[in-house]
Amino acid sequence: MRPARMLAAAALATLATEALPLAAQVPLGNRSGRGQTVTPAYEGWYENADGTRSLSFGYMNRNFDETVELPLGPDNMIEPAEFQGGQPTFFAPRRHFGVFVVKVPADFGEGKVYWTLQMRGQTFRVPGHLHVDWEIDALKGEAGGGNTPPILRFAADGAEGAGPAGVWGQPLTARAGEPLSVLVHARDDGVARNALVGGSRRGAPVNLTWFKHQGPGTVEFGEPTARVPASGGEASTPVTFSEPGEYILRVRANDGSGVATAGHAQCCWTNAFVRVTVSP
After folding, report:
1. What's the fold here for domain 142-279?
2. Residues 210/225, Cβ–Cβ less than 8 Å
3. pLDDT tens for residues 245-278?
4. What are 224-243's pLDDT values in tens digits?
5. Number of helical H runs and strand E runs in the chain
6. What is d(CA 162, CA 267) in angstroms, rounded to the nearest whole number?
7. Are the CB atoms for 62 and 28 separated by under 8 Å?
């Protein structure tokens, strides 16, 4: 995102919900383990190689301990309906940037994509759009500094992806209660953000974190986090599903900048997704 606009856009991303009741705006400093709401956030947009645009969305789960489940439907909805289905149904605690994207055509113009979450008697709705002030250009090299997101793939010869849209792996199958080993390959340019201002973490490893993105049951990751060298490496985790159904797993790769500094810039992490069909 253009440097002069980054901080303003970051501040607005969480608060850009429409018609948000004042009582729903829980101060971020009010620590509460459970019982709070989840707010959708619009992070910005960027152009894809084929001319389409990716609208990047994240969320803020105000709980410090409680994960929240909101199945797809009236309580977790993307509009227009043609864009429905890629959003998470599982929300881990606190702020999560650029969790998924909605791809819109090059001629989308002044159109908008709305993400609505309803829970605990409150409704939160955020618009995604192509306003010039929300363009993310840091994916091409962090405001000219050269830092780009890590690259992920699920197979040695598989498709690669970077940034919030990331890449999708080939669908997998599993049985409920039986571990499934999921492998991901990662590499990075080795240019950590703080290395650009005199730090010494150039070549820092890529940090991988696994999440349940969608699915009806509980998902347990035997190795929920891992590190691989910036020059390239792979990591696997055994994944166990509590019940049958259709699931989507997400793995997030952060470069040496770390999670905390990878927010509004969106220079510094990549998502990868894989569908898993779990039988009884």
Report:
1. Immunoglobulin-like (2.60.40)
2. yes
3. 999 999 999 987 654 444 556 778 899 999 999 9
4. 999 999 999 999 999 999 99
5. 1, 18
6. 10
7. yes
